[in-house]
Amino acid sequence: MMKTVIQPYVRLAGLISYLQSPFLLVVRLYWGWQLVQSGLGKLHHLDKITDYFTSLNIPIPAMNAHFVSGLEFVGGILLILGLGSRVIGLMLSVNMLVAYWTADREALFAVFSDPAKFYVADPYTFLFASAMVLVFGAGLFSVDALLAKPGRSWVEKQ
Questions:
Q1: For the segment 73-129, what is each residue's pLDDT rounded down to a tens digit?
Q2: Distance between CA atoms of 28 and 83, rounded to whole angstroms?
Q3: Which of 16, 44, 85, 90 suits a disulfide with 138, CB 3.0-4.6 Å?
Q4: Residue 151 burial (C-beta neighbours within 10 Å; 0-12, 13-18, 19+)
Q5: What is the pLDDT of residues 7-25, one digit of tens each?
Q6: CA-CA distances (angstroms) from residue 76 to 30, 35, 115?
Q7: Could you count the other beta carbons within 10 Å of the beta carbon of residue 154?
Q8: What region, left, alpha or beta, does residue 28 occupy, with left being phi > 0 and alpha being psi -120 to 50 degrees?
Q9: Cα angle at 73 between 69 and 77, to 5 degrees?
């Protein structure tokens, strides 16, 4: 009896697992492109971003504006390519947590008490996509996968 229930589930789970890499590709392409556009927009308006960072009391606002703009632009390109995805996923995740902390602290602290406030905040979707790539990697359709030998990550080859 249990076998007739478990076997179909195991088969279904096996089939669905084939969707992991295509799903990660879609996440990387979509959110990578959004980050490229966001970073490029910030790079073209560094004076406004610097003023905004100044209003948030972020230390060294001009340097941080350049850094964040470049991180989003280059990080988005790296996400699209799936290159260095765990490192860039970590950097972008930290960047989005800092964005929550500095610009939307109320939403950050409402993550459990008022989740709607947390997930409608601007950094949410970027944080979610970055964390997903950080945790799961870039998938098979990525430069990272091309650099890897079967069974070994490219980092281990260094």
A1: 999 999 999 999 999 999 999 999 999 999 999 999 999 999 999 999 999 999 999
A2: 11
A3: 85
A4: exposed
A5: 999 999 999 999 999 999 9
A6: 9, 5, 27
A7: 15
A8: alpha
A9: 160
